[in-house]
Amino acid sequence: IGSGLVGSEMCIRDRMKADLIIPTYRPDDTFCLLMQKLQEQTFVVHRVIILNTEEKLWKEAVEKYPIEQSLCGLPCEYTLYHISKEMFDHGGTRMCGVKHSDADIVIFMTQDAVPADKNLVANLVKGLEEKDTAVCYARQLPNENCRIVERYTRSFNYPDESRKKGKADIEEIGIKTFFCSDVCAAYRVDLFHKLGGFESPVIFNEDMFFAAKAVFAGYYVKYEAEAKVIHSHNYTVRQQFHRNFDLAVSQTMHPEIFEQISSEAEGMKLVKSTMKYLCSIGKPYLIFELGIQCVGKYAGYRLGKRYKKLSRKQILKCTMSPEYWKRLWNQEVSDGNR
């Protein structure tokens, strides 16, 4: 362990073993950079478990990028599993990774999230030091090429101050109580299993649904601002539409959470705050760009809320996860034939 970690952090290191679980699809040079940054971490994970979608695409990526070289440089063992695109599921695939782990903590990351410094893993593990904390998620910082509006959204959703969130915080911060992101998040395995883990199949928001279960069960969700990854997207309006369609579908499927606490109020708060920010930096003309993005987001969101009234053909045009729907419909047919 690095000399910068002393006292309680070293105790955690002695007591806790952590595995890193990463679903991949067409891994690229960013994934290689992620592997290289893991080699520099002060807290060395026990194992890296890679859950790759489509073996053929992995082989193509290996020919194009120095993936094998990056993996061989890891200071821990790694295992690679391949699944078909039809079998990928945000919850089920990650649950498969947990089944292959014997660690006390599992850390989920996406292939496009890169540690911002050498203490990412150490700070995530430290965030789980208190036994009533079920999950600890990292702060996401924007990439260099991130657009101004998206850059501000990152700072809005991932502020520079850590916070431990529980049932008592619902009245104050509403839906943000359950906010969590598997872009980079660590889970206590004992509580993960006790609470049932991720549901499957799930179209979106497996992390947020688990966080809600934890909070309602009396446990806590930790946002650790000192655990930092570089991660952002410059989504097009079309991509925003598809993403928010799936987001709304996932919320509609969980009325026990979202009928009590609306996410739309938090969305409006972000829009108003962004407009104010753009004016404060002398770029009010970007409000037009913001408005176009909001139109795409809201259109997708409203259609997703009404997905039960849409035909299957319409759903497949709106979603960014057609495999999920095909699996769901096939499952319904199988259940109906029993």
Question: Keywords, please?
Answer:
9-stranded mixed beta sheet, disordered N terminus
Indicate the mean pLDDT.
93
- Please tell me how large the radius of gyration is: 20 Å
Helix content: 40-55%
Helix/sheet category: alpha/beta
Largest sheet: 9 strands, mixed
Number of strands: 9
Order of helices and strands: HEHEHHEHEEHEHEHEHHEHHHHHH
Report how far apart the termini are.
55 Å
Please explain how this structure is put together:
The chain has 338 residues and is an alpha/beta fold. Helix content is 47%, strand content 17%. The protein has 16 helices and 9 strands. Strands 1, 2, 3, 4, 5, 6, 7, 8 and 9 form a 9-stranded mixed sheet that branches. Helix 2 links the parallel strand 1 and strand 2. Helix 11 packs parallel to helix 14 and helix 13 runs antiparallel to helix 14. It is globular and about 45 Å long. The N terminus is likely disordered.
